[in-house]
Write a structure and sequence with these properties.
Layout lengths: L1 H21 L1 E10 L10 E4 L5 E3 L5 E7 L6 E5 L6 E4 L9 E3 L7 H5 L8 H10 L1 H4 L5 E12 L4 E13 L6 H4 E13 L6 H12 L16 H16 L1 H6 L19 H4 E11 L2 E10 L16 E10 L5 E10 L2 H11 L3 E12 L2 E14 L6 H4 L5 H5 L2 E14 L2 H8 L15 H5 L8 H11 L8
Parallel strand pairs: 1-7
Antiparallel strand pairs: 1-4, 2-3, 2-5, 5-6, 8-9, 8-17, 9-10, 11-12, 12-13, 13-14, 14-15, 15-16, 16-17
Helix pairs in contact: 6-7
Length: 473
């Protein structure tokens, strides 16, 4: 009896210990501009000297789960061009708005510093490339992150999926194609209403697979297609446009893949881009160059297999650390510029903007790691709607179903550098397949940091979840 009682006490003690070790504090608030009272989107919220953090949504709101052991650590709320807000985790008051004031340095400082310092945007960007080896990780590491992938046409949301992912990178110096991997660890929301709309993509998939040039969407009937075949077609169309592998291993991973011979931000980047120094801003008491991205002499192209992704001009902004020349944030757009791409973009997408990319980076142990990625691009589902197909499918509804606006958001919240942990992770099977169905792991998601949805998104997602789904949970 005493033995059983001892076991009970031991078990209770261990349970309480685990609860204490793994319990978390939830902090939540809204970040607002002090002068305009407008919400500040994409502000950084993080625990100082850790990789625990998140970003604010379009409403300026955020939620962050922080392990109890960090109760006496400092939360930093920062946004480029504003003075930072700092408070300990224990003192943080939920649901009280956080007001940030503008903080801009003087551009004249550039003129007053030593003559060896770069003074033009082009010179600064060339220095950025020279310093990449110093600023990017040189040892293998893992990053844990959260992915939200959503798609909609002009009328409604069509697909939403959320996943916990792991990124492995062997180092900046190694080629991404062979030395970078992505794994989908867990999946929760998985609503998909693209089964009928994607008949167009399915026809293109069959054309690609069978080389049957005469195949048309009108020859297909949804009730004769097996779900597994349809899923394969959707996967094929997703992966060639905006699959995770493309995003991390391709040309749009502008900083990580700058050493690639085809890189957009490589040795010949000034042929396709020009960089103009705009001003000096401040973030978290550090000065940043704000640099405008403008068009170069040559068009920008992405070399996407099976898709004409050429003939663009780049626009956007870069934010570069004054001292280290590390890029803190990129806002990058590709706009149709060649005559062929302009015609294609107007007729298919009703816009000349084909790609919007935002990437922000966190500093950890004097190296820069990806923190937040936002990627938006229109993706054809009405593939092959040309000439002979056009007359029968010219009605307005078909136009609405011609493409989806697709958005991928990724938030990274943990960096793992321990060589044993990295080695053990690589022994497991890796897959970046966000379609693979798995049971909903409630306990996992309770403790996992995710991106807070905006109020508008929440409503749209609720509407989507009420309807039939290809992958209903």
């Amino acid at each position: 009896m005493k033995h059983s009682y001892f076991k009970y006490l031991l078990g209770l003690s261990l349970s309480l210990l685990c609860t204490t070790v793994f319990s978390q504090t939830e902090v939540r608030s809204k970040i607002v501009d002090f002068n305009t009272f407008m919400p500040i989107e994409s502000a950084s919220i993080y625990v100082e000297n850790t990789t625990i953090g998140t970003v604010s949504n379009s409403d300026g709101k955020f939620v962050l789960l922080i392990p109890k052991k960090h109760a006496n650590d400092t939360i930093v709320v920062s946004s480029i061009g504003y003075s930072s807000f700092k408070i300990t985790v224990a003192e943080f008051v939920n649901d009280e708005d956080i007001f940030l004031e503008e903080d801009i340095a003087s551009l004249d400082e550039v003129i007053l510093v030593a003559s060896t310092r770069p003074k033009t945007g082009n010179e600064i960007m060339q220095r950025v490339l020279e310093e990449l080896e110093e600023n990017l990780p040189e040892e293998p590491y893992l990053q844990k992150g959260f992915l939200r992938h959503k798609e909609r046409n002009k009328r409604e949301y069509k697909w939403l999926i959320e996943s916990a992912i792991t990124l492995y990178d062997s180092s900046y110096a190694s080629g991404a194609e062979d030395n970078l991997r992505i794994n989908v660890d867990e999946t929760r929301k998985s609503y998909d209403l693209r089964d009928v709309d994607s008949l167009f993509a399915y026809a293109a998939y069959l054309k690609n697979k069978t080389n049957n040039k005469r195949l048309r969407k009108k020859n297909l009937r949804r009730d004769t297609i097996k779900k597994a075949s349809l899923v394969n077609a959707i996967k094929w169309n997703d992966r060639r446009i905006n699959g995770l592998s493309n995003l991390f291993k391709g040309k749009l991973n502008l900083i990580r893949n700058a050493g690639d011979s085809r890189a957009l931000f490589g040795r010949d980047m000034l042929e396709r881009h020009q960089f103009e120094l705009d001003t000096i801003l401040v973030e978290n008491e550090k000065k940043l160059y704000k640099i405008k991205i403008a068009k170069g002499k040559e068009f920008v192209g992405l070399n996407t297999v099976g898709v004409y992704n050429e003939g663009f001009e780049a626009e956007g902004w870069l934010y570069v650390d004054w001292d280290s020349y590390a890029i803190k944030k990129i806002e990058y757009m590709l706009v149709a510029a060649s005559d062929v791409q302009k015609r294609r973009s107007r007729s298919l997408f009703d816009t000349l903007v084909n790609h919007k990319l935002t990437m922000s980076f966190m500093e950890y142990q004097e190296k820069m790691y990806p923190k937040y990625i936002y990627y938006e691009t229109p993706k054809l589902v009405n593939v092959g709607n040309r000439s002979s197909d056009k007359k029968e499918e010219e009605d307005e509804e078909a136009k609405d179903e011609q493409f989806y606006y697709t958005v991928q958001e990724i938030l990274f919240t943990e960096i793992i550098q321990d060589s044993t942990a990295v080695s053990d992770a690589l022994k497991k099977e890796w897959s970046d397949d966000i379609f693979s169905s798995r049971p909903y792991n409630k306990n996992f998601w309770k403790k996992y940091n995710v991106l807070l949805e905006s109020e508008e998104e929440e409503k749209l997602i609720r509407d989507l979840s009420k309807r039939a789904s290809l992958f209903k949970q």
